[in-house]
């Protein structure tokens, strides 16, 4: 396949992981990093450790401390938290030679700010399929499922297939969504109830999984959030949510207990929640606007997501 030229904006867990793996797959990769992270990467390369196998690798990638303004890249993959987007857009827009920007952050607002900054024809939306944490210069990671990405108009374009092909070549399977805007909003709907429940349990997913009543509230909070989005006309995405949304508690509660009580969720969910509280508070504000617009009352979601506020102590301690 064609060697694509990638610019990765964001050198945290996911930016480091994808940049290293695509470089190992033969892609031309440049990674934007700053401060102490830049120095760590310059000294050690991108050091990855697989959570499952404990195998470590070190990959050298080209580093820059800002977006090159006059250099062509096939695509810029943006891997930052939503709280960082506003400040990042001017830097991203400084390069007019990049035809495609793939934004992978959580978002309940929609892509308008990205469209305004870059032009709609340059904006792609996606979602990651991995998680983990950084320990010094080492990135510990786990890959959980397939990546999702799509064009704003839902078409499976040639460029989308080329970008997906590069990620597939690096070992990351990809599926396409016809409505990534809805996909991201439903993901936030799930995340608010889920992370609120995790904070309610003192950032211990195993403690949460043992509490059936807390799991029931978590599920009911998700369903209330789904109803907000359905009222506003957002179709349910991804499709697998369509058959699960009406499942009764006696099916969903045990299922969620198994998922939330797993090591996979500890690594991919809890550790993100631990490091992304500011982002979750920001997303909570975004979703509150959707609730007000829909005119939907969400008592269970409100009860669960209040624990996102760090001033609210955990309710489940044993």
Automatic annotation (TrEMBL):
Organism: Alkalibacter saccharofermentans DSM 14828
Matching SUPFAM superfamilies: NAD(P)-binding Rossmann-fold domains (SSF51735)
Residues spanning the membrane: 186-206
Coiled coil spans: none
Protein known as: 2-dehydropantoate 2-reductase
Residues in Ketopantoate reductase N-terminal domain copies: 8-153
Keywords per UniProt: Membrane, Transmembrane, Transmembrane helix
Phylogenetic lineage: Bacteria, Bacillati, Bacillota, Clostridia, Eubacteriales
GO cellular component, one term: cytoplasm
Gene3D superfamilies given in the database record: NAD(P)-binding Rossmann-like Domain
